[in-house]
Amino acid sequence: MKGAIAICLQEIVEKNYGKEKFKEILKASGVPDNLVLLATLDLDDALVLNVITNTIKILNISEEKLFDMFGDYWVNGYAKKLYDAYFVLSSNAKEFLMNMDLVHRLVTEVTKNAHPPHYTYEDKGDRLIMKYNSSRGLPDLLPGLIKGVAKYYNENVRINRLDNNTFEIVFERR
């Protein structure tokens, strides 16, 4: 997993809970004290998943709350700084979501050892069926990211989970 994911998580925890709390999470997760997080750094998936698990436990929050916080900050804060060029490809939440597989394929081409998830889609007008495909098994992150995208475009969405990896996004009119 790329260091950008860990850096985003670090920024969320430090902003909302303090630097000491993030240090506590890293220690509980077995992260070496001398590890310097860089966006392009390759981190072991198990290590990052352990940090996520310990973040939930130490902060005493639900997985859903952490993933919602992550999705909101990733879309509306962290990724906006790094990947602004990809945001201009879309004029609304649905277009943005439907471009995510292309964006991830482009990132894979230019970033060494990048293995982002891929998506398949069924466009049903005011609904989008989006299927998460990744060996990492983190489909639970997707609803928070979708909510973050909807917030960015100032839109309302309703998300229904159809199975473990498949989500229906209903775009609601204001």
What is the CATH domain class of the largest domain? Alpha Beta
The averaged pLDDT comes out at 89
Query: Oligomer, anyone?
Result: single chain
Q: What strand order characterises the main sheet?
A: 1-2-4-3
Keywords:
single chain; 174 residues; alpha+beta; H-NOX domain; 2 domains; four-stranded antiparallel beta sheet; 7 helices; 4 strands; 16% strand; globular
What does this protein structure show overall?
There is one protein chain. With 174 residues, the chain is of the alpha+beta class. The chain has two domains: 3-61; 89-172, H-NOX domain (Alpha-Beta Complex), CATH 3.90.1520. 53% of the residues lie in helices and 16% in strands. It is built from seven helices and four strands. A four-stranded antiparallel β-sheet has the order 1-2-4-3, covered by helices on one side. Strand 3 and strand 4 (166-172) form a beta hairpin. Helix 1 packs across helix 2 (19-28) and helix 1 runs parallel beside helix 3 (45-59). It starts with a helix and ends with a strand.
Write a concise synopsis of the structure shown.
This protein is an alpha+beta fold. It is 53% helix and 16% strand. The chain has helices at residues 3-17, 19-28, 45-59, 63-82, 84-87, 93-110, 142-152; strands spanning 118-123, 127-133, 156-163, 166-172.
Secondary structure elements and their pairing?
Layout: H1 3-17, H2 19-28, H3 45-59, H4 63-82, H5 84-87, H6 93-110, E1 118-123, E2 127-133, H7 142-152, E3 156-163, E4 166-172
